[in-house]
Amino acid sequence: MKKYNFNAGPSMLPREVIENTAKQILDFNGNGLSLMEISHRAKYFQPVVDETVALIKELLDIPEGYSVIFLGGGASLQFTQIPANFLIKKAGYVNTGTWAKKALKEAKLYGEVVEVASSADKNFTYVPHNYEIPSDLDYLHITTNNTIYGTELRKDIDAPVPLIADMSSDIMSRPVDVSKYIAIYGGAQKNMAMAGVTFVIVKNDMLGKAPRELPTMLNYTTHVDKGSMFNTPPVVPIYSLMETMRWVKAEGGVKEMDRRAKERAKIVYDEIDRNKLFKGTVAEEDRSLMNICFVMNDEYKDLEAPFFEFATERGMVGLKGHRSVGGFRASCYNAQTIEGVNALVKAMKDFEAQH
Ligand SMILES: *Cc1c(COP(=O)(O)O)cnc(C)c1O
Questions:
Q1: What is the pLDDT of residue 148?
Q2: Is residue 10 included in any domain, yes or no?
Q3: Which domain holds residue 309?
Q4: DSSP assigned state of 62
Q5: From 71, 81, 99, mutation site for ligand 1 pocket: most ligand atoms within 8 A of C-beta
Q6: Which pick of 29, 159, 275, 322 has the fewest CB atoms within 10 Å?
């Protein structure tokens, strides 16, 4: 049966990315060696890193003076590495959910941290807007898409201080004004690649200012200076990342990804709002285009498990909402298709007709 993949991460990738990566795993560029067997320092692999960096810079229109590096440890290690490198005295964090809270917690190990705004009062069902940002912060940390709660900022805010963003789950889904940020990071496994690699975009002239001695591996300068080759990089995940960036470019770039995201999300949210069985979980203006969360309407609560089963029988995978929200979550990253969201909407309509 055809599967429709709504997994939140690791998540759906373009079919050709998977096929091309599989081919290179069997025989890398006709060299008779697998992508898994070559040295990362061999002349074979350097062009992959170079092209991946160049494509990310081109697609996001990254200005001069920034580096793109590939690391291990996931976005979760960045929660530590960001403050270790950038927190001098005081940092601000916007608390918009589970991941934002984890980032804030780690930053406290390195200095004073202010929670500048929070949506905890309504269980993270909205994104705070129009809050005051102290002008003496070293940086303001935001999470542009809240993967678990299904809220999204979807713009680059104006702030009197440099921004740092966790863009794990919306990177490459819209144009970004990178010049407003001194760092952008994320696990690549949501919208860019297979699991195993973390991307970090850093502003070079902001490095080396932290008033502490950093372990070599935690110092961004180490990885910038060595072009992500200080230690062995995750070769296969980086290759899959390059293939995805080629695909994004060939499909029309981040503007086209943005258009598609809006088109897909409208189809699903329109049905959530129309269908008597379901309701959305977050403030309308902050609805995520990437992770669409919805629950059964109160009078149909007992139909949750039956709908899940109904959708599963039609090939839908990964629809279960995160345990802190419940209900359903349809993740619609770049590779998600109109066919996929139409199949979901059809299931919602057909299920409604039965009840
Ligand atoms: C998935 C996710 C993370 C955690 O990523 P890991 O690579 O697993 O550490 C952090 N932030 C956001 C917004 C995420 O979606």
A1: 97
A2: no
A3: 253-353
A4: P
A5: 99
A6: 29
Q: For residues 317 and 212, what is the distance between their CA atoms, to the nearest angstrom? A: 46
How far is the centre of ligand 1, averaged over its atoms, from the C-alpha of 9 (Å)?
9
pLDDT band at 281; cut points 50, 70, 90:
very high
pTM exceeds cut of 0.90: yes
Task: Based on the fold, state whether residues 160 and 237 are members of the same structural domain.
Answer: yes
My answer on whether 22 and 163 are in the same domain is: yes
Instruction: Tell me the HSE value of 219 on the side-chain side, using a 13 A CA sphere.
Output: 15
Instruction: State the average pLDDT over residues 61-77.
Output: 98
Check if 187 has its Cβ closer than 6 Å to any atom of ligand 1.
yes
Residue 334 CA, chain-centre distance (Å), reads 11
Residues 244, 104 share a domain = yes
Nearest-angstrom CA–CA distance, 166 and 199: 10
76 lines ligand 1 (CB under 6 A): yes
Binning the chain into helix, strand and coil, the percentages to the nearest 5 are 40, 20, 40
**264 shares a domain with 177:** no
* Angstrom distance (rounded) from CA 177 to CA 201: 12
Regarding the beta carbon of 166 and ligand 1, being less than 6 Å apart is answered: yes
Question: What token pair was written down for 11?
Answer: 């998540």
How many angstroms separate the alpha carbon of residue 188 from the centre of ligand 1?
9
Environment class of 279 (CB within 10 Å of its CB; exposed 0-12, middle 13-18, buried 19+): middle
Residues 34 and 183 in one domain: yes
Please check whether residues 302 and 177 belong to one and the same domain: no
Q: Does pLDDT of 43 surpass 90?
A: no
Average pLDDT over residues 202-227: 97
Ligand 1 contacts CB of residue 243 (under 6 A): no
291 and 245 co-located in one domain: no
146 and 262 within one domain: no
- Residue 9 resides in a domain: no
